[in-house]
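fwd from M.: "can u put these together and see what the complex looks like"

so here's what she sent:
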Amino acid sequence: MKKGFPKISFRRYTQLIAAVLYNCNFKGFIDSSIYKGETKGVCVPGLNCYSCPGAVGACPLGSLQSALLSSKYKFPYYVLGTLLLFGLLFGRFICGFLCPFGLIQELLYLIPTPKIKKNKITGILSKLKYVILAVFAVAIPLIWLMPGFCKFICPAGTLEGGIPLVIGNEQLQSSIGFLFYWKLSLLAVFLILCVFCYRTFCRFICPLGAIYSFFNPVSFFGVKVDMKKCTNCNACVKCCKMDVKKVCDGECIQCGECIRKCPEKAISFGYKGPFSKGHD
Amino acid sequence: MKIRTIAAALVLCTLLSLSGCASGSSGNKSSDRSKDDDTKTTTEEAEPEYYRELMVGDTAPDFTVELTNGDTFTLSDHNDEVVMINFWATWCPPCRGEMPDFEMITNENPTGFTFVAINQCETKAMVDAFANENGYTFNIGYDPDGAVLNKYPTDGIPYTVIIKNGVVRRLFLGAPSPDPYEVYMTAIKECLAE
Amino acid sequence: MNGKVRTAVAIVLFVAAAALIVVGIVSGDFSDVFNKARMICYECIGIG
């Protein structure tokens, strides 16, 4: 045993604050009811189910799907605008700092077991999230008019929304069937995998991460590399637990682990948007 | 070290302020239910400000809605009947899924029974478009600002309430499976016979 | 991507995002999101 508390990083604090902020309707957990205040119309940046009894905001991915369901009657300006704004400002910085389900996965990874390192297969699997985005979060809502990702996959929804609601509501207990057990098993699979494989869900499945990944190259805030100092030693890519091929590519969750590992101190956090210094 | 103290303080502050604001703000929404847990609402002449989730045996709050066919529907006009109220939305797949069952039930037209499907907070144009596309003929009510829904608070839809003589007799959260028609029809017949 | 292109893309996207949000709020999208987030459909989140 090491003495004292394990070091808690600034990032971990941010993740915790975000998780609490998103889900601060504590009363909801007690009577298993959903918060109904006006703030529910605002999307939070991270993946956080709006059917969680504690949730005070909307899940951007859930809102996107349910907006696509009514796209026949109405174009989803607001949800698309919100996603675009979040992506542009932060990119996958949101995954690294502001996502409660990312936090849960990282905490599970702290359990000391043999770990699966990133390899060619995980590299290929990391493209799977784009397929999930296209099929479950866009095509199924548009064509079959159901929120495919929320309904069939989302483990965050099962953990934050499904389980607490079913536990607290007898009427719901009588209505659960195959679908709920399927999602429960899927959640169990992801949670177990996360112990051995860093952020399994984020890397391979999460459509929200897939959306934000498109913005990583242009996002305003995040990790940046000073190319004048960089010697292409690749220490950053080697130490990274995500399937990155280059700092700040689509797989980078901007967690900043590589900042400490860079022997040239070429990597830093900061503003890298328009008119920033060395904007290239 | 300094950063961590600041961060710890920040966590604490957020927690405190949030627990404050969460309990503060949740109290003044009309759909909040704990506020009036002890006051059994709904029968009085004066409209209560808060409605709690209904249970079987409660008095059904009265309401009036405008229907797609231009008529209006007032619950208290049907006090001597069995009334089934369904809350739905066009974006809700299970709600859409049970619409054909409602059509069948309405077409059978059991004596002493009335059905109304109240849309949840969507525009009249959307509701009309949806009803026309699918050719539904049963009573569909508009509730663009959620006034009726506030009297029948629920966390989820579809939500179906069967009322007899102004008293709630059956509640359905979600679409019943496997066959909504069978389940609803059985419940309606039971209520009619009771 | 070179700096100028990136700057241009970022600015265009930022303006687009702001415009979409404004149009969305004006056209009542906000209340749509609100209504769908406060009144969920259980089957849609996998309870069923």
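replying to her w this: The two ends of chain C are 47 Å apart (CA to CA).
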